[in-house]
Amino acid sequence: MSSKKKTILKVIILGDSGVGKTSLMHRYVNDKYSQQYKATIGADFLTKEINVDGDRTATMQVWDTAGQERFQSLGVAFYRGADCCVLVYDVTNTKSFENIKSWRDEFLVHANVSSPESFPFVILGNKIDIEETKKVISVKSAQDLAKSLGNIPLFLTSAKSSINVDPAFEEIARSALQQN
Ligand code: GDP
Ligand code: MG
């Protein structure tokens, strides 16, 4: 008889308002996309069961902000016990890219993780479905930033067109599992 071990992985998504955090979460968890999400959602997080290997399943809790990111005033419960922190920017928005490092620092200040040097982050450059001429962040500069922050895995995604969302969350799950 195999004894199934239950693991809960807490993943939090940070980034400027409007980069597509809520859309990415819905795309991953429900495989849905809607142009308009309310700024506030009912639940603190959405969950998805994932298969880790034959003997192990895990529940991923994806925590989204309800618009408070505009004021950088997320409660301590939001950060507590996170196993992976996803940092999102919008490839058509320079400011959101420049703020990636601040969001990472913000996380480290509040989350109180035991070893900040090895804590897993994943960076998502979202909205790559948008036409080339509107993209302002090159792949190279994103790679350079990811490298400079400690070789953080980087994925270019589209919640709208469902590009690279599953591979990104597979990496997120993998890195969160290493914390458990
Ligand atoms: P949040 O504030 O970071 O949670 O961002 P939302 O998920 O609410 O998305 C903000 C706006 O960007 C909405 O109008 C979305 O429809 C749009 N959006 C989100 N993801 C994408 C994407 O991958 N491509 C495009 N073109 N628009 C997106
Ligand atoms: Mg949102």
TrEMBL record:
<keyword id="KW-0488">Methylation</keyword>
<dbReference type="GO" id="GO:0032889">
    <property type="term" value="P:regulation of vacuole fusion, non-autophagic"/>
</dbReference>
<keyword id="KW-0636">Prenylation</keyword>
<dbReference type="GO" id="GO:0006897">
    <property type="term" value="P:endocytosis"/>
</dbReference>
<dbReference type="InterPro" id="IPR001806">
    <property type="entry name" value="Small_GTPase"/>
</dbReference>
<keyword id="KW-0449">Lipoprotein</keyword>
<dbReference type="GO" id="GO:0005829">
    <property type="term" value="C:cytosol"/>
</dbReference>
<comment type="similarity">
    <text>Belongs to the small GTPase superfamily. Rab family.</text>
</comment>
<dbReference type="Pfam" id="PF00071">
    <property type="entry name" value="Ras"/>
</dbReference>
<dbReference type="GO" id="GO:0000011">
    <property type="term" value="P:vacuole inheritance"/>
</dbReference>
<dbReference type="GO" id="GO:0043254">
    <property type="term" value="P:regulation of protein-containing complex assembly"/>
</dbReference>
<protein>
    <recommendedName>
        <fullName>GTP-binding protein YPT7</fullName>
    </recommendedName>
</protein>
<dbReference type="GO" id="GO:1990816">
    <property type="term" value="C:vacuole-mitochondrion membrane contact site"/>
</dbReference>
<dbReference type="GO" id="GO:0032258">
    <property type="term" value="P:cytoplasm to vacuole targeting by the Cvt pathway"/>
</dbReference>
<keyword id="KW-0342">GTP-binding</keyword>
<dbReference type="GO" id="GO:0034727">
    <property type="term" value="P:piecemeal microautophagy of the nucleus"/>
</dbReference>
<dbReference type="GO" id="GO:0044877">
    <property type="term" value="F:protein-containing complex binding"/>
</dbReference>
<dbReference type="InterPro" id="IPR005225">
    <property type="entry name" value="Small_GTP-bd"/>
</dbReference>
<dbReference type="GO" id="GO:0000329">
    <property type="term" value="C:fungal-type vacuole membrane"/>
</dbReference>
<dbReference type="GO" id="GO:0005771">
    <property type="term" value="C:multivesicular body"/>
</dbReference>
<dbReference type="InterPro" id="IPR027417">
    <property type="entry name" value="P-loop_NTPase"/>
</dbReference>
<dbReference type="GO" id="GO:0003924">
    <property type="term" value="F:GTPase activity"/>
</dbReference>
<dbReference type="GO" id="GO:0042147">
    <property type="term" value="P:retrograde transport, endosome to Golgi"/>
</dbReference>
<keyword id="KW-0547">Nucleotide-binding</keyword>
<dbReference type="GO" id="GO:0005525">
    <property type="term" value="F:GTP binding"/>
</dbReference>
